[in-house]
Every structure is written in structure tokens, then in C-alpha cells.
Specification:
The protein is mainly α. The protein folds into two domains: 49 residues, Arc Repressor Mutant, subunit A (Orthogonal Bundle); 144 residues. Helix content is 77%, strand content 3%. A two-stranded antiparallel sheet has the order 1-2. Helix 1 packs across helix 2 and helix 8 packs antiparallel against helix 9. The longest helix is centred in the middle third of the chain and has 33 residues. The chain is elongated. The relative contact order is 0.12.
């Protein structure tokens, strides 16, 4: 029974914390306001969370790690595919499915990702965008290294990684409808894949 009560208290605090962080940002968010909104005492909060940083992490860590796992699996599949082909003509250039998967996941956890993008200043997540650029850049380079007969332009590959992440961020911030975001980003990602092949891949 105690575990059920603790779970209910945790969920109430997280729901109130999401609202507080989204409205005021991390720095100005008040634990007292969060507890008041949840109808709980600060003692209840400190029983479950160490501090404000721990509460923020409880909101953003699970979806953030989930997204990294989705991307990791995708890039591993791309790397294996690149190692098996003998010509770029054999590559599957339609990335609509992974774009749809990413968009669906982000919108299922929309508040958490908006916190990461708009309210992470002075937290350990404030450089999360750069971390995703690095993740994409490193993964794409590993994939490109496996394409026979080609090398890659490091600068152009990094630039394309930035553009890709920026495209997703822009759409997530400005479009609330998941189906519209899917349609737009699917087309954008397929366009960017062609850009990678034309700008970042260099024939040996």
C-alpha cells in the first residue's frame, strides 16, 4: 500500500513540476509552488527526490534515454546496411519510417522534450542539442566509412548533422499537431539524406 501511495505522490509531483518548469524555466521554478499545486508538503517531495535537479531529471531522463536508444538502433542498422552494399544505388534512401517513429515518440513525451529545449538552462541537460548533433554526426560517419569506394567530408557531414537536428527542433517547437509534424519532417529528412550523399560523401 505504501508503494502505491508513493507512486501516486511521485506522479502528482511530476505533473505539477512539468507545469512549473514549462511556465517559469528551471531557474525560477519553485519547489514550494510545485508542492502546493500537487496538494503536498515539501517533506513529501524530499522523501522522493533529492532536490530540484533530481525532480527535473525524473521528468526528462526516461524519454531522453528512450530517444537515444531509438536513434542508436537505427544507426546500427544503417551501418550494417552500408557495409553490405557495393553501390549507392542499392541503398534505401526512404527514411520516412524512422522520422515517423522519432516524431511519434517525441510527441508522446512532448512536455519533457519541450523542457529540454526551452527550460534546461543551468542543468546538466543544457547542452543536450549539441549532444544530439554529436550523436548523429558520429553515427553517420561510422555508416559512411562502411560505404565501399567512398570517403567522407568531415566538415560537411557535421554541418548536415546540425541542419537535421535544427529541422526537428524547429518543427517540434512550432507545430503542435503530430500528423502535420510527421508529414513535414518525413519529407525534410529524405531531402537531407540526399544532401548527405551529395555533399558529405566523396568518391575515392
Amino acid at each position: 500500500m505504501r508503494k502505491e501511495n508513493d507512486q501516486g505522490t511521485r506522479e502528482a509531483l511530476i505533473a505539477s513540476a512539468k507545469k512549473e518548469f514549462l511556465e517559469k524555466g528551471y531557474n525560477k521554478a519553485s519547489l514550494r509552488s510545485i508542492c502546493s499545486d500537487a496538494g503536498l508538503t515539501t517533506g513529501a517531495l524530499y522523501f522522493l527526490f533529492e532536490n530540484k535537479a533530481d525532480l527535473y531529471s525524473a521528468i526528462v531522463d526516461p524519454p531522453l534515454n528512450g530517444l537515444k536508444q531509438i536513434l542508436g538502433r537505427h544507426f546500427e542498422e544503417d551501418r550494417k546496411e552500408a557495409a553490405m552494399i557495393s553501390s549507392l544505388d542499392e541503398m534505401d534512401l526512404d527514411h520516412s519510417w524512422i522520422s515517423d517513429m522519432i516524431v511519434s515518440y517525441i510527441y508522446e513525451n512532448y512536455d519533457s522534450f519541450m523542457l529540454l529545449l526551452t527550460a534546461s538552462e543551468n542543468t546538466k541537460y543544457e547542452n543536450v542539442v549539441d549532444e544530439f548533433v554529436e550523436l548523429v554526426d558520429n553515427s553517420v560517419v561510422m555508416m559512411m566509412q562502411n560505404i565501399k569506394g567512398y570517403t567522407y567530408d568531415k566538415y560537411m557531414s557535421h554541418w548536415m548533422s546540425h541542419i537535421s537536428i535544427d529541422a526537428f527542433i524547429h518543427e517540434i517547437k512550432h507545430e503542435k499537431d503530430v500528423n502535420t509534424a510527421k508529414k513535414r519532417l518525413s519529407s525534410i529528412l529524405n531531402y537531407l539524406v540526399m544532401g548527405w550523399l551529395n555533399l558529405a560523401l566523396v568518391k575515392k
